[in-house]
């Protein structure tokens, strides 16, 4: 009965299989009641509510008992032992704040030169949080840019990003807890997230489709559902891009980059 806390069940199953857990409770009159606590399909868990009473003096379902077809409200004993803890877990999940786990997060962008040469770059230092009411902020330390070539990293830090004046880029957003509440039961959902991206002191509002995944009670992932295009013209970086091009023999560099990310959040301490 994992949902009620009355024990622990672990199963390792092939992806195509299905599994379920049945809960049992008795009311003051001695009648047995059963509830399908949850079932899984393709490794996705679905919670089920509603109790049924066993017919006559039937034994538990595992012994071949038939169960009445009509569902009824759970007996009081079952409600107190099973339903309430699950509701409490859901409330706790959304009432606590979350902190970004840099070690399990990534933010990549792709540069395009000569029109056809694609190179993937990344930022190594991210920090962020989500407050209990859904206020979210992620800071990207621009000095942590990593392209695989040291001299190019230095040029991007000081010529393109101007880290002496603008050490961080920031992403701020407001997440509606009600709108994403289904992720607690369904484990995964797509959500159109309005964000404000600020680079070099210039802010731009964007709407980004993200995939929010509940990977456990202590781990949530927020990932881009598709690449997000970021243009140097939107953040005053045209001159810096021109200087980068000149430094490598006037090789043309596309002035926009697709950005992808996967951000891991753990409960705030």
From TrEMBL:
Coiled-coil region(s): none
InterPro entries in the record: Lipid/polyisoprenoid-bd_YceI, TTHA0802/YceI-like_sf
Positions of the Lipid/polyisoprenoid-binding YceI-like domain: 97-266
A Pfam entry, by short name: YceI
SMART domains: YceI (SM00867)
SUPFAM superfamilies: YceI-like (SSF101874)
Name assigned to this protein: YceI family protein
Source species of the chain: Jiella pelagia
Lineage, highest ranks first: Bacteria, Pseudomonadati, Pseudomonadota, Alphaproteobacteria, Hyphomicrobiales
């Amino acid at each position: 009965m994992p949902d009620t806390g009355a024990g622990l069940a672990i199963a390792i199953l092939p992806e195509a299989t299905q599994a379920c857990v049945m809960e049992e409770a008795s009311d003051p009159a001695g009648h047995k009641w059963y509830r399908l606590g949850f079932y899984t399909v393709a490794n996705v868990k679905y919670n089920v509510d509603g109790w049924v009473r066993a017919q006559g003096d039937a034994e538990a379902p595992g012994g071949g008992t038939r169960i009445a077809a009509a569902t009824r409200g759970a007996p009081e004993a079952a409600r107190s032992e099973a339903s309430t803890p699950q509701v409490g877990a859901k409330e706790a999940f959304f009432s606590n704040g979350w902190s970004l786990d840099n070690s399990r997060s990534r933010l990549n962008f792709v540069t395009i030169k000569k029109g056809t040469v694609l190179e993937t770059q990344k930022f190594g230092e991210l920090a962020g949080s989500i407050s209990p009411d859904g206020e979210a902020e992620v800071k990207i330390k621009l000095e942590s840019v990593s392209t695989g070539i040291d001299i190019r990293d230095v040029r991007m830090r000081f010529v393109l990003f101007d880290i002496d004046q603008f050490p961080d880029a920031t992403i701020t957003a407001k997440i509606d807890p009600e709108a994403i509440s289904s992720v607690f039961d369904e484990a995964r959902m797509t959500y159109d997230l309005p964000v404000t991206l600020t680079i070099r002191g210039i802010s731009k509002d964007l709407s980004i489709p993200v995939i929010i995944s509940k990977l456990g009670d202590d781990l949530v992932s927020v990932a881009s559902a598709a690449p997000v295009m970021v243009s140097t013209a939107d953040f005053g970086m045209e001159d810096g891009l021109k200087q980068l091009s000149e430094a490598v023999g006037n090789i043309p560099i596309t002035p926009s980059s697709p950005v992808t990310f996967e951000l891991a959040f753990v409960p705030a301490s």
